[in-house]
Amino acid sequence: MFEDRSYKRTFYSAPQSITALVAAFLEPAVAVLVFVGASMAFDEPIVRADLTLCLLVVALTFPGRNRFQDRPLNAAVDISASWIVLMVILALCAYATRSLHFFDTRVLLTWVLATPALHWLLVFGGRRWLRHLASLPGNQRSVVVIGAGGLAVKVARVLGNRGSRFLGYFDDRSDDRVHVEARPLRLGSLQQAAAFVREQGVSEVYITLPLGSQPRIVRLMEQVQGTTASVFFVPDVFGISIIQGRLQDMNGVPVVGLCETPFTGTNRLVKGVSDIVLASIILLLTSPLLLMLAVGVKLSSPGPVIFRQRRNGLDGEEIEIYKFRSMYIGQDGPGVAQAVKDDPRITPFGAFMRRTSLDELPQFVNVLQGRMSIVGPRPHAVAHNEQYRRLIKAYMVRHKVKPGITGWAQVNGLRGETTTLDKMQARVEFDLEYLRNWSLSLDLQIIARTIKLVFFDRHAY
């Protein structure tokens, strides 16, 4: 009666909680086990310093990122970048505490080289295993989508990427009223859906009808609940900029969170501790440089060494941040003009600092004060916020987190002057993407890429 149409399966749709759990423990476990194995291989005893190092590695790498569905090359680059950043942090800690002599050089060298290689091999093996499981007929979960509009097509794409065997759509509307991509895969009307699900043994049903179709949704639910299929309702929220969307239980009342800060609970603790630790280490190690820069600013032109700027911080609260003064005259009023290339207001020494981002170093003090974070959306002038909040959709959502010294937008080419509205909008989109996908691993990647940009990027002035 019904024709079987399906997308090509790519991955075994194992429960996300299982793969995420394995990935969370894989990265710290590999690092610790390789270190222990290297110590045993060179007949080195495990002493207190080794245990401290292992605990620090676990604290910095847990939870590990789920890379099982990444392409092998992307996974290799991501693993290498994260490992290099971790080694830089540990090296700074060793330098600050003068503890490097506690460790055997052969053990450390073997550990540094073998850990990312073994980690990648395990990720690659896990990816191959998931692909093998995907080819087993018993693991294929068939799904249908109720509705054939734009939302339904988006759901179908996600299901196809996830590896489900997508069969098609059910919709009462004529072909000229449904999405063009859904027309070839229409299986019938809503009245035919329950029979198809029952006869074909469909595993999952996704309802994408608008809320205005509540009577039809209720009837359809009554019919489909007579089968063994799992039923999911997909609310049409794609027109909204969703930040950390999640379903919550409020004393038995289901609540869908659409716009929320990622830094709650454990995430808030992890973010805060990492900020304080890294900012303290950086300020300690750069203190001689800070002194030299202060002298350079004082000798280059008259005026204060530190320039204080008013910015909007967490939840839009006005804060004061610090920078080494790089201009002859500080400007922080209602009509702030962005710095441009060859700006006559910038001193020669200030141009050097801005090009290398050294003028931003005092902001690590702001991090210790709790006003800023090391990674987050860059703070704009208060005057610019008032201007762009009226022009760019969801602009103020970037203030759901503390502003950062560096950010996802800056390491993706949006550093320095934003000459057009399109450039500012692109910067905001990257900021919102950071809020959606935040993890400690992402923060470490951004820090690593920022270090590279300090030496090679020439877009800031």
Protein model, in words:
- Helix content is 48%, strand content 11%.
- The model is unreliable at 1-15 (pLDDT under 50).
- Helix 9 (287-300) packs antiparallel against helix 10.
- The chain has 14 helices and eleven strands.
- It folds into three domains: 16-134, no CATH class; 141-239, NAD(P)-binding Rossmann-like Domain (Rossmann fold), CATH 3.40.50.720; 266-456, no CATH class.
- The protein has 461 residues and is an alpha/beta fold.
- The protein has helices at residues 16-41, 48-61, 72-97, 105-134, 150-162, 190-200, 214-224, 266-285, 287-300, 348-356, 363-369, 382-388, 421-437, 440-456; strands at residues 142-146, 165-170, 186-188, 204-207, 230-233, 246-250, 253-257, 306-312, 318-324, 373-375, 404-406.
- Strands 3-2-1-4-5 form a five-stranded parallel beta sheet, with helices on both faces. Strands 6-7 form a two-stranded antiparallel ribbon.
H/E topology pattern: HHHHEHEEHEHEEEHHEEHHEHEHH
Describe the sheet with the most strands. Answer: 5 strands, parallel
Query: How many distinct beta strands?
Result: 11
- Spans of 5+ residues with little confidence (pLDDT < 50)? 1-15
Structural class determined from secondary elements? alpha/beta
Average pLDDT value?
A: 82
Any idea how many domains? 3
Please, how many helices? 14
Estimated helix fraction: 40-55%
Shape assignment: globular
How much is the radius of gyration in Å? 27 Å
Strands ordered across the widest β-sheet: 3-2-1-4-5
Strand content: 5-15%
Distance between the termini: 68 Å
